[in-house]
Automatic annotation (TrEMBL), chain A:
InterPro entries (UniProt xref): Mediator_Med18
Name of the protein in its database record: Mediator of RNA polymerase II transcription subunit 18
Subcellular location: Nucleus
Family in the record: Belongs to the Mediator complex subunit 18 family.
TrEMBL record, chain B:
Protein name: Mediator of RNA polymerase II transcription subunit 20
UniProt GO BP: regulation of transcription by RNA polymerase II
Organism of provenance: Pogonophryne albipinna
Annotated localization: Nucleus
InterPro entries for this protein: Mediator_Med20 (IPR013921)
Functional description taken from the UniProt entry: Component of the Mediator complex, a coactivator involved in the regulated transcription of nearly all RNA polymerase II-dependent genes. Mediator functions as a bridge to convey information from gene-specific regulatory proteins to the basal RNA polymerase II transcription machinery. Mediator is recruited to promoters by direct interactions with regulatory proteins and serves as a scaffold for the assembly of a functional preinitiation complex with RNA polymerase II and the general transcription factors.
Family: Belongs to the Mediator complex subunit 20 family.
Length: 209, 211
């Protein structure tokens, strides 16, 4: 019943700008076990964690410019957990020596009314998919090995079809803008995963939209 | 989080807003309520900039409550509500070309927080553009989350210090499909604050010390 701590000014927008550093690669299904074995050895000691997530990608078409993209993700294995809403900015250009893709990132935890709320805001769902696989951690870095599946009937996550015969491997780290140390950690970690998987900087804007 | 009722208290005849707030504080203290810190609730209004096929734009309200300092609530009047963490504000800044913040319409309610047994009472001054627009009183009965089970008790308690200004059962409870026996949550509280803020926004500004 004690009053929660009240700061004299409410905390509003303009909080620390977080940047996501990302390296991506893939492995064929048959190589999965060797990769998982290597990751279990290199990463922090923790219970093996698998996940099954459903992600919906929403677009808001403005009067000019590119549509605004938001990614809404929920866990199918923990259905009562909050939704995870993610905004990813344009990749930072310039420093070619930067080993990883760097982009602004805003993560918001949201209640289960998220899809309805986004529709009311004017967002429309562009596509959805399910991802299942394994997650590992090493310090501030996160390694996700996932199999992506297409949803055949909108909204039905039971009926899915695998998109490929490989697993997507993503090595990512979050750091406040200006702090570049995680980039070096990621580069050296990626070296340790060779030749099982080659993680590289893949610019999403160069992909077909 | 219990069942809350948010209502407006009229400014007393011949008194200023601050004096009327002090009168309510005094009545609460006489009852035996103990002051426990302060509270604030605020509401920002966003206009969508996109033209949605000639329909009037739906306003998006983003509200904060000091009782839940790490959360942020997004509401559409009569529409879906979202409970999110504080980063939602950062996201709204990113969306500024699609949703414009009507800064002049920001409404804040600040005041003291009192505790009386299982009740939490918050008496606040509602301000818009630094001018006081009215007085709000929020009464929360903490042990219960079902309005139908504690409304009579809450109303009786409110009568003991608000006298004739006691409100009727908030429409937000009666409007639910399961009626009064659906559990209440923070969205119900914020919806009531939003209704009060919109009502005060539309009213003409009262004179500073003259009624």
């Amino acid at each position: 019943m004690e009053a929660p701590p009240v700061t004299s000014m409410p905390v509003t927008g303009g909080a620390v700008n977080m940047m996501e550093y990302l390296l991506q690669g893939s492995v064929l299904d048959q190589a999965l076990e060797s990769l998982l074995h290597r990751l279990r050895g290199l990463c922090d000691n923790m219970d093996p964690e698998t996940f099954t997530d459903h992600e919906l990608v929403y677009l808001l078409k403005g009067q000019q410019g590119n549509p605004f993209i938001l990614r809404a993700r929920r866990s199918l294995s923990h259905p009562t957990s909050p939704w995870h809403l993610r905004y990813l900015g344009q990749p930072e250009v310039g420093d070619k020596s930067r080993h990883a893709l760097v982009r602004n990132c805003v993560d918001v935890a949201a209640s289960h009314s998220l899809p309805e709320f986004l529709n009311e805001m004017g967002f429309r769902m562009d596509h959805e998919f399910t991802a299942n696989g394994h997650i590992f951690r090493k310090g501030v870095m996160k390694i996700v090995v996932s199999k992506l599946s297409r949803i055949l009937v909108p909204g039905n996550t039971e009926n899915t079809e695998r998109l490929s015969l490989s697993y997507l491997v993503e090595l990512s780290g979050l750091a406040p803008a200006g702090q570049d140390t995680v980039s070096e950690d990621m580069r050296s970690f990626a070296e340790q995963l060779k030749p099982l998987v080659h993680l590289e900087k893949i610019d999403p804007s160069k992909q077909r939209h | 989080m219990g069942v809350t009722c948010v209502c407006q208290v009229p400014v007393a005849e011949g008194k200023s807003v601050q004096q009327s707030v002090d009168i309510v504080h005094k009545k609460l203290e006489q009852l035996g309520a103990v002051k426990q810190g302060s509270f604030w609730v605020d509401c920002e209004t966003y206009h969508p900039t996109g033209n949605v096929s000639g329909q009037p734009s739906k306003l998006l309200y983003v509200m904060h409550n000091s009782e839940t300092p790490l959360s942020c609530m997004g509401l559409f009047e009569g529409g879906p509500c979202l409970i999110a963490d504080a980063n939602f504000d950062v996201l709204m800044v990113k969306l500024k070309s699609h949703f414009q913040n009507a800064k002049a319409h920001k409404v804040e309610c600040r005041g003291s927080r009192y505790r009386y047994c299982d009740f939490l009472i918050k008496v606040g001054t509602v301000t818009m553009s630094s001018s006081a627009r009215g007085i709000s009183v929020e009464v929360e009965y903490c042990p219960c989350v079902v309005p139908g089970e504690c409304w009579n008790l809450t109303k009786e308690f409110m009568q003991s210090f608000l006298g004739p200004s006691v409100p009727e059962l908030p429409s937000v409870f009666a409007a639910k499909p399961e009626g009064l026996f659906a559990p209440s949550d923070c969205v119900d509280t914020m919806t009531q604050y939003l209704e009060l803020f919109n009502k005060l926004r539309k009213m003409q500004m009262p004179g500073s010390n003259v009624r």
